[in-house]
């Protein structure tokens, strides 16, 4: 009979029959419970459980103690600080977005390959996506019961299936927790904002002689967020690092000066806060808040050319430097989303035999966020009639003198409230499973099976946003019977109320309600995930160097989604009503608006739905090659998985790897190579269509312009991306001559073919006509004989990605350093990206290397170092995070005026290609004030390091935009 201790049950449940990883600095998890009876803790790497062998794939492990010491309100933040994670999203990312629905979405990106190529698991099991890309939201996981996080830095598709191209992040819960523990934390930034409150409690107990065990947790997390700032250059809380850095294209290639200029305090000259005439004889006349005209102060000592193009002498195209920047809108972007999170989790397990347990888990969680994408709703290219009833008489006179009847006009619409975006994600996840062991013909086997059903509801609501067609009608005002009204009689009949955009006069409530209805754009998405999985592992044969370990299993999965949107964005003709409310009571028909949708300034959501299913089977073995004193010990690990997708057919992935514990004390070599895959997600396959009219589209076969409808749609014919993932490295683990020291260095290389990418409408047609991409030929028709033609803009499998680099990790522990009680530990992790080549394979293009491009989050070097001192009573931790300097783009040639070569498409010239790196210092500590009760503090970004100045406002996926943060809290474990 196989004896499964409680710790073994916990391990199997959490890890899914897994192989212990190589012993290295990052492989040392928390100690097992005293008396638990299990000699080793198994961590994510393969599906095999086998004693004494080590997986070849590098893995970093973050223990519960390390998660606790970092004192973050969301453990996602701690994990995302690992150097191998590049481009992860969180509460500081996507805050500039109106329509993505990814605000506050905590998702990992290993190797810079994006969240869609990183598989995130909970207890070795899949989690329903919180976005139509299939990416789960880590903030919806139970936080307080996580006992460690395993980060597998390498392809794992043969073990876990699709999405594990960059690697796997597995959250392991403590399924046998006993007692009660909790955490209360408060935090605030150095700028008196982003006030944060976290309250968490967890409990666990056993019943019926330990056969029935229940654990559960409840947590609440509220962050007030940061931002927005006012118009101009100032940011929220008085932060002073924003300089409106902008990359300007001079469009001159061969005059010896750079084609591109990086400028600070950029001033767009096609709009101002309260309005600016931007072209023609009156160019340069602006309006103040009271509506009085004045001569606008251009930066760079610029003077308006007063021509039809609206150019300004002395300035760069589109921008001047300095001058009146009060109308700049970027400072109004939220720096960190406001967030409220509620999470409930429970697990009930019953050991119906000594070797077997059946269990059920439930995870109900909600995350709500709020952000402001930008100040105002910039409209830079309006046409204003000189007869406009709101136009000051002096300007009407200037029009008459100049002989014009209209002029071009730009405004940031400061008279309107800024757009607000609210997201609401609700996750309902249930798992029924069984784990245990059995004896078959004298051999010991372990099994693990589960069925998971997950539902995620994602709601997006946009408030204070205008309907473009109504705005266009409302600003076209005329006098009628002594009253100022909308000039268009059709618009007047449908309720148009005029507004004055010359100055800062607030529109009337009626005008607000006309152009900005109370019920703005919205989207309602439901995603379902069903997974059934069964895995078996054992050691059926004893060979010459040890037992042969074997694992095999099957899995079935179904993913589906449905999204419904409002009538003004989606199109009234396609809208049958939302939430049981007929569209005409919420979104009344209006002849001013397009029945085809796309009426909002932003947030034009569409209806869509789709599903696919997956059937998989895999086998994996771990073969001992030799185990002798003279040669050391080596093993070979291999796996193969066959997957059948309902959308794209059958796919085969595999891996081969091994480790060699050399005769040299503590020295191990390891290597692995694998064929991995990422299947297209629901969004790529079945994206809700977005429709746009292209009135002058060139038909290259007839050389005539035609009218076409551009439909941005999904592509059900997409096939999986195929990756080749190779790594090899060396590990030195606690040699006799230096106990408590470990170091590892690993090289990795990943090549992904058939990468899913999209093309423009012109490219789709041209690449078909030129027989470059024949698969695009079925995506369009330019025949106008029976109405407009169409072009379906969709994704195709045609690009490739190739990346390589190094992972380095080292740690050392000094017990009782200098005779002091406690342990001093140092740990360092680093990742170096040598190359990150993206090749779309299209004519006239060359591969683009984004390694070291800091605006793309792929820093050349990313380092995390931790020093800690721990005793039974108190602890102190110092942490350093370093990001190397980078560039705006590796394609640029940096040069100064008079020295530049001819600028080309693939090698353009630029005056400043540098992007600063960053150094962040974090300090924290704790003290046990009562038995089982500990007070703690943490200061993040002690030096109040500002983010690097980049040309995309900031890059919060790489830099910290908040500044110094103070955290205080109390933990108890009773």
From TrEMBL:
Boundaries of each TonB-dependent receptor-like beta-barrel domain copy?
444-942
Indicate how the chain sits in the lipid bilayer. Multi-pass membrane protein
Residue intervals of the TonB-dependent receptor plug domain: 54-168
Compartment list: Cell outer membrane
Q: Which Pfam families match?
A: Plug, TonB_dep_Rec_b-barrel
**Would you indicate the residue range of the signal peptide?**
1-25
| Protein name, UniProt field | TonB-dependent receptor
Where does this protein come from, organism-wise?
Steroidobacter agaridevorans
